[in-house]
Amino acid sequence: MAGTWVFVDQRDGNIRKVTFEMLSEAKKFGGEVAAVVFGKGVEGLAGEFAKYGADKVYVADDDIFAAYNTGAYVAQIVAMINEYKPNAVLFGHTMNGRDMASRLAQKLDTGLATDAIAAEISDGKGIFTRAIYAGKALAKVEVSGSPVLATIRAGVWEVVEAAGAGEVVKATVAATAADVYQVAKEFIPTVSARPELTEAAVVVSGGRGCKGPEGIKVVEQLADLLGAALGGSRASIDSGWLGHELQVGQTGKVVCPGLYVACGISGAIQHLAGMSSSKFIAAINTDTEAPIFGVADFGVVGDLFKVVPLLCDELKK
Amino acid sequence: MKVLVCVKQTFDTEAKIELKDGKINDAGINLIINPYDEVAVEGAIQLKEKGIAKEVVIVSAGADKAMDAIRTALAMGADRGILVKQDTAADEYARAVVLAEAIKAENPDLILAGHVASDDGSSQVPTRIAEILGLPHVNVMTSVEIAGGKATCTSEADGGTAVTEVAIPAVISSQVSWNEPRYPSMKGIMQAKKKPVATVDAAAVDNKVKIVEFGLPAGKTAGIKIEDDPDVAAVKLADWMKNTVKVEVK
Q1: Which pLDDT tens digit goes with each residue over A46-100?
Q2: CB-neighbour burial class of residue A288 (10 A; exposed 0-12, middle 13-18, buried 19+)
Q3: Are residues A161 and A237 in the same domain?
């Protein structure tokens, strides 16, 4: 059986980091590792995947793939799966990845493990660990089938450089206009100098203790100093200080950065679910009894309006 | 226009999760409508209030107690419900198959559902339903306009916001930021008791995904906690960030 395919998550040639994380980890499953990239004018990206160990790079290059659309992408990968028969296909658990993988799984009448945080893959079988209840519990699940399908959470695997042959295989374009059922009218990129929440190495979040947009500004200064993504607890989203796309927690995003800094966040269970798998956690809160201190590697009992600016000054030294 | 909303009954998001005999313990847990589905119910009711939808039908696959979730949606303002009785251990595939079967019989113009369930976090079922029914699907929708046989959806996308148009009938999965679900009024709760809810048994469908085991995450333990003057605490925290975490300062 051919080995593991990693579906490349990219827009306009900007490749999401989870792609490299999956390529790096896929080598552990044995067999060939291939990157699969769909787009227009994307053949030149092949070298990027070889750098992280891709033995092969399957390229489907056509106008129809210029931007992600579920129908055409699924039709194309189904044709390629039938032709090349990979043992497993992994997608990033991104908006597009989960959408494409779910539709693909149903088309193939098979199972799918979404948002996996660990994987063991052998011939025709995958054992995946999934965080359920937004990380309050874990489920180890078995997915059988050919191929084994899963979407992988960003940030759980290390990116490791390892030269691969990166042999380019041009796939026959199988998708047709009849497969397209979504008309893309517009794409408005988020204008922010900050990294995205789910991709960032550092996340700095503000909660109720920010008391308003002024407090968020204080937290933003720390975020920018650390090159971090900005996030918030439900309190600061419900109060309208931050947009919902920045909510960390059970009805928002689950993040696992190298460092999470919680400012003025008490640590309600639904927030803890979204961030407690971060590698390091720092917390600044006035209430010494706040549950956030129960998960913090470094806690400061104090007022964020005083501590955060002083911290910024110290970090600059 | 007939709008059908899929709802799943889930644990309250504030619930603490514990294991009992190797399974998730549901004893004493408050059950709610999955918050993402609740937004879909609210959106459907608003479509009815605007005169775009004529009827709002709620469908849930689950145990007998999922009837409470259906009644809550009816109390919010939906017209009638269908409970497809199915073992709660059904996986995403099995749930999608039985829901699609119930939906097909209703032949709705629009199918709404939350884009993810707050319990299993799978975000698969609405997409699978669309594939089974051969319908277009738009994921993670934050607002929608329905006109001229088309749904124009604004959705959360990776790195931005996408505007996508699909022909209806279609399946659209909602993000929680679409709207603010209403609380059922006392009058609504009384009326909901009289609204019709059909109960059907799900066809036997085998799961595709096998649960090997449930576990709890290794609890993170508290580390250093400083209660000192802000300037002293800030120096220590900066030192920890630089030397232990090894952050890069821009």
Answers
A1: 999 999 999 999 999 999 999 999 999 999 999 999 999 999 999 999 999 999 9
A2: exposed
A3: no
Check whether residue A42 and residue A170 sit in a common domain: yes
CA-nearest of A285, A307, A312 to A221 is: A312
Encoded tokens for A291: 């549950």
Do residues B37 and B97 lie in contact, with contact meaning Cβ atoms separated by under 8 Å?
Answer: no
Inside any domain, residue A243: yes
Q: Do B234 and A310 touch (CB under 8 A)?
A: yes
In a domain, A195, yes or no: no
Residues in A closer than 8 angstroms to B98, CB to CB, are: none
Could you tell me the residue range of the domain that residue A79 belongs to? 2-179
| B224: contact with A, CB 8 A cutoff | yes
- Burial (CB < 10 A; 0-12, 13-18, 19+), residue A15, is middle
Q: How many CB pairs under 8 A join A and B?
A: 277
Q: Measured between CA atoms, how close is B82 to chain A, in angstroms? A: 24
A189 contacts chain B (CB < 8 A): yes
Note whether A42 and A168 are same-domain residues: yes
| Per-residue tokens: A267 | 């640590």
Residue B86: which residues within 8 A CB-CB, separation 6 or more?
Answer: B61, B62, B63, B94, B95, B98, B202
Neighbour count for residue A238 (Cβ, 10 Å): 14
Q: What is the second-level CATH architecture of the domain B2-201?
A: 3-Layer(aba) Sandwich (3.40)
Segment A163-221, tens digit of pLDDT: 999 999 999 999 999 999 999 999 999 888 899 998 899 999 999 999 999 999 999 99
Q: Which of A268, A276, A288 sits opposite B220 (nearest CB)?
A: A276
Residue A266 belongs to a domain: yes
- Which residues sit opposite B214 in a β-bridge? A139
- Bridge partners of A230, per DSSP, are A204
The number of folded domains in chain A is: 2
Query: What CATH number should be reported for the domain holding residue A251?
Result: 3.40.50.1220
